[in-house]
Amino acid sequence: MSSRHRLQALLAHPGIWQAARPALAGQSALATGCDALDQALAGGWPAQGLCELLVEAPGVGEFGLLTPVLCGLQKAARAAGRPAGIMLINPPYVPYAPALLGAGVDIARVLVTRCRQDRDLFWTMEQALRSGACAAAVAWCAAADHRHLRRLQLAAEAGRCWAALFRPFHFRHQSSPAALRLCLAPAPADGLSVEIFKHRGNRPRRVIVAN
Q: Considering the entire predicted model, what is its pTM?
């Protein structure tokens, strides 16, 4: 096999991310609850892998963006006879139970975990993703290096568990192995500006989501 053919075979591997390559045929997606965002993401959230959400400041409605997919993941897990737990690691605020209930999330299956050290946070999330006991794991952290992010990406794929990580906005220029990267900021009329910063098969674009 020539060097050119070997390179083409390597780049065809689904684990190699290329911005210009469209999503693979049959690759599943999870609805976001917003038609415009679903269209921009070629169907919705990636069903596997790590989603990284970069936020200007906590409390702009960023967690509300996730409640439709968390509700959908719980329903799908129950229908398949799988655990429907959701782990929230180091949320900046105590989750508002009435809002979660109103969005259809089963709060009896939501576990909030606090970790004092970043290394404990990454270990906890990785174990949750690999355990098979969770439908989703969501964490908030101040900083993460490429090695930690890569481990979370691999754990989400291995455990077939949906994963989301909130990080400060200024990390947008740091490279990341996450399957999807979004930048979130306030928008007029209490909306949320969602900038698609990294997503296979699509160029960056911005969508306004109503809170």
A: 0.84
